[in-house]
Amino acid sequence: MTTSTETPETIRYTADTVVTTTDGHILLIERGWDPYKGQWALPGGHVDTGETSRTAAARELAEEAGLHVAPEELAQLGVWDTPGRDPRGRYVTVAYHLLVIPGTPIEAGTDATAARWWPLNALPPLAFDHASIILAATAHADR
């Protein structure tokens, strides 16, 4: 409970997308900015004013990886809100999943220096808590 002398915590709202192929690969982008510049991450970013997290996830996927999908094609995985998951402050993300066929074309866009399909069993070190989001997506797919 917040008392009258405490300042409310600023919480930023983001969306991330786990895109996997039917043959066991995942789409990752190489971050072109800090934090974690040069590291691999899920496509995602801030939810803009007036957007839903699902719409933001679809927009960020197009902007960062050149993959254009309708927001309703994205299946919600869950919410990640552990304090400290982002070094910039308190960030809450809603993660989505999309399953595509092998060979789906991708191209690095804004904020990404590269976009690449990685085998799920040979992932590079990942930024933020994206390994736990991927684990949840793959566990969900195995059910």
Share of β-strand residues = 25-35%
Number of distinct beta strands: 7
Which series of helices and strands comes N to C? EEEEHEEEH
| Chain oligomer state | single chain
Number of separate structural domains: 1
Largest sheet data: 4 strands, mixed
Architecture, CATH level 2? Alpha-Beta Complex
Low-confidence stretches: none
CATH superfamily: Nucleoside Triphosphate Pyrophosphohydrolase
| Helix proportion | 10-25%
Per DSSP, the total helix count is 2
What is the third-level CATH name, the topology? Nucleoside Triphosphate Pyrophosphohydrolase
Structural class: alpha+beta
The Cα radius of gyration reads: 15 Å
Structural shape: globular
Q: Quick check: average pLDDT?
A: 94
Distance between the termini: 38 Å
What key attributes describe this structure?
single chain; 143 residues; alpha+beta; Nucleoside Triphosphate Pyrophosphohydrolase; four-stranded mixed beta sheet; 2 helices; 7 strands; 18% helix; globular
